[in-house]
Specification:
The chain is mainly α. The protein has one domain. Helix content is about 60%, strand content about 0%.
Protein backbone atom coordinates (compact mmCIF):
# COMPACT_ATOMS: atom_id res chain seq x y z
CA UNK A 1 0.00 0.00 0.00
CA UNK A 2 1.19 3.50 -0.77
CA UNK A 3 1.82 5.67 2.23
CA UNK A 4 1.75 9.17 0.80
CA UNK A 5 1.36 12.59 2.35
CA UNK A 6 -2.17 13.86 2.83
CA UNK A 7 -3.67 15.12 -0.38
CA UNK A 8 -1.22 13.19 -2.55
CA UNK A 9 -3.48 10.23 -3.31
CA UNK A 10 -4.70 10.48 -6.90
CA UNK A 11 -6.58 7.99 -9.07
CA UNK A 12 -4.14 6.69 -11.67
CA UNK A 13 -6.81 6.96 -14.38
CA UNK A 14 -7.65 10.61 -13.67
CA UNK A 15 -7.06 13.66 -15.81
CA UNK A 16 -5.01 14.98 -12.92
CA UNK A 17 -2.68 11.97 -13.11
CA UNK A 18 -2.31 12.63 -16.80
CA UNK A 19 -1.47 16.28 -16.10
CA UNK A 20 1.03 15.36 -13.36
CA UNK A 21 2.86 12.64 -15.26
CA UNK A 22 3.01 14.66 -18.46
CA UNK A 23 3.96 17.97 -16.85
CA UNK A 24 6.41 19.23 -19.45
CA UNK A 25 7.93 22.35 -20.83
CA UNK A 26 10.45 22.95 -23.59
CA UNK A 27 13.49 24.54 -21.98
CA UNK A 28 15.13 27.60 -23.42
CA UNK A 29 18.37 26.92 -25.24
CA UNK A 30 19.70 30.29 -24.04
CA UNK A 31 22.40 29.50 -21.42
CA UNK A 32 22.25 33.00 -19.91
CA UNK A 33 20.12 34.34 -17.08
CA UNK A 34 17.51 35.30 -19.69
CA UNK A 35 17.16 31.60 -20.58
CA UNK A 36 16.88 30.68 -16.91
CA UNK A 37 14.16 33.27 -16.43
CA UNK A 38 12.26 31.86 -19.42
CA UNK A 39 12.57 28.33 -18.03
CA UNK A 40 11.31 29.38 -14.60
CA UNK A 41 8.30 31.13 -16.18
CA UNK A 42 7.49 28.02 -18.22
CA UNK A 43 7.72 25.79 -15.14
CA UNK A 44 5.48 28.16 -13.17
CA UNK A 45 2.90 28.04 -15.95
CA UNK A 46 3.07 24.23 -16.18
CA UNK A 47 2.54 23.80 -12.41
CA UNK A 48 -0.29 26.38 -12.40
CA UNK A 49 -1.99 24.48 -15.23
CA UNK A 50 -1.69 21.20 -13.31
CA UNK A 51 -3.08 22.93 -10.19
CA UNK A 52 -6.26 23.75 -12.12
CA UNK A 53 -7.04 20.01 -12.21
CA UNK A 54 -6.14 19.36 -8.57
CA UNK A 55 -7.92 20.00 -5.31
CA UNK A 56 -7.11 20.30 -1.62
CA UNK A 57 -3.53 19.90 -0.39
CA UNK A 58 -2.23 18.88 -3.80
CA UNK A 59 -3.66 22.00 -5.46
CA UNK A 60 -2.05 24.12 -2.73
CA UNK A 61 1.26 22.30 -3.24
CA UNK A 62 1.23 22.79 -7.01
CA UNK A 63 0.47 26.50 -6.58
CA UNK A 64 3.33 26.76 -4.06
CA UNK A 65 5.72 25.21 -6.59
CA UNK A 66 4.47 27.63 -9.27
CA UNK A 67 4.98 30.56 -6.88
CA UNK A 68 8.55 29.45 -6.22
CA UNK A 69 9.33 29.35 -9.95
CA UNK A 70 7.67 32.75 -10.45
CA UNK A 71 9.94 34.13 -7.71
CA UNK A 72 12.93 32.53 -9.43
CA UNK A 73 11.93 34.11 -12.74
CA UNK A 74 11.95 37.55 -11.15
CA UNK A 75 15.12 36.81 -9.14
CA UNK A 76 13.26 37.68 -5.93
CA UNK A 77 15.85 36.25 -3.53
CA UNK A 78 14.00 37.36 -0.41
CA UNK A 79 10.87 35.51 -1.51
CA UNK A 80 12.92 32.47 -2.58
CA UNK A 81 14.45 32.24 0.89
CA UNK A 82 11.04 32.54 2.53
CA UNK A 83 9.59 29.99 0.10
CA UNK A 84 12.33 27.36 0.51
CA UNK A 85 10.67 25.26 3.23
CA UNK A 86 7.13 25.46 1.79
CA UNK A 87 8.61 24.59 -1.64
CA UNK A 88 10.36 21.50 -0.23
CA UNK A 89 7.14 20.36 1.42
CA UNK A 90 5.17 21.01 -1.79
CA UNK A 91 7.67 19.05 -3.89
CA UNK A 92 7.28 16.12 -1.48
CA UNK A 93 3.50 16.15 -2.06
CA UNK A 94 3.96 16.48 -5.82
CA UNK A 95 6.40 13.54 -5.96
CA UNK A 96 4.07 11.41 -3.84
CA UNK A 97 1.17 12.19 -6.17
CA UNK A 98 3.23 11.33 -9.27
CA UNK A 99 4.44 8.10 -7.64
CA UNK A 100 0.84 7.23 -6.80
CA UNK A 101 -0.16 7.84 -10.43
CA UNK A 102 2.68 5.75 -11.86
CA UNK A 103 2.28 2.91 -9.36
CA UNK A 104 -1.48 2.87 -9.61
CA UNK A 105 -1.74 3.50 -5.88
CA UNK A 106 0.44 0.56 -4.81
CA UNK A 107 4.16 0.86 -4.30
CA UNK A 108 5.96 -2.48 -3.95
CA UNK A 109 7.03 -4.08 -0.71
CA UNK A 110 5.90 -1.44 1.75
CA UNK A 111 7.82 1.37 0.03
CA UNK A 112 6.71 4.76 1.30
CA UNK A 113 7.27 8.34 0.20
CA UNK A 114 8.92 10.40 2.94
CA UNK A 115 7.40 13.73 3.86
CA UNK A 116 9.14 17.02 4.50
CA UNK A 117 7.49 18.79 7.42
CA UNK A 118 6.17 22.30 6.92
CA UNK A 119 7.39 25.06 9.17
Amino acid sequence: MLAAPAGARVSSASGLCNALTKLHYTPSSNPTAVGGEANAKKLAKAFNNAAKKASGDLKTALKEIAKYFNDAATANTTALQADAQPFASAISKYVAAVANCVAGGNLPGGVTIPTIPSQ
